[in-house]
């Protein structure tokens, strides 16, 4: 008999730890498939806008981090920490190539509404596409034309994507983690883990969720 684990992942596109956490979750799910082949995992991505007051056009990336961390040395140390963590999960991030810190409301709105237009695999492809556009290709993910191109490349219907991106009164409501930050993983609304946890921790949380399900039967 098939079992299902629901995982809610709270994230923002500008957060490199969210991309790292996504890779760790993928490893954990693959491990679960090997040990529990009859268990399916259903992931729901909950968009969190970390910088809701960010101008729509964004601001220069280097200036943003210099203002936030205070010194160029602090910025280099923080970015090197992230680079090493990303490299450990097979992700290359070159902060020097990112020109602007964008407003992510439109990207989150697109991902949320696109969930109704395709299956989970295609929806994940769109999520990956937006992450990649920002961290790997230095693109402006607050730009409508950029988001439209990413979505159509991922196989979405161009007219449907245009309708989402150009809707006049569609606002994005940021999800709330209760101050836990992102990434934030919630398993079956029972267990929660904050931060880019190792795959082993995420795998263990899924096992504990299964134990709770079995205890209720």
UniProtKB/TrEMBL annotation:
Matching SUPFAM superfamilies: Thioredoxin-like
Highest rank taxon of the organism: Bacteria
Pfam families: DSBA
Molecular-function annotations in GO: oxidoreductase activity
Boundaries of every DSBA-like thioredoxin domain copy: 7-205
InterPro entries with a match to the protein in the record: DSBA-like_thioredoxin_dom, Thioredoxin-like_sf
Gene3D superfamilies found in the cross-reference section: Glutaredoxin (3.40.30.10)
PANTHER family assigned: GLUTATHIONE S-TRANSFERASE KAPPA, THIOREDOXIN SUPERFAMILY PROTEIN
Record protein name field: DsbA family oxidoreductase
Organism: Acinetobacter tianfuensis
Lineage summary: Bacteria, Pseudomonadati, Pseudomonadota, Gammaproteobacteria, Moraxellales
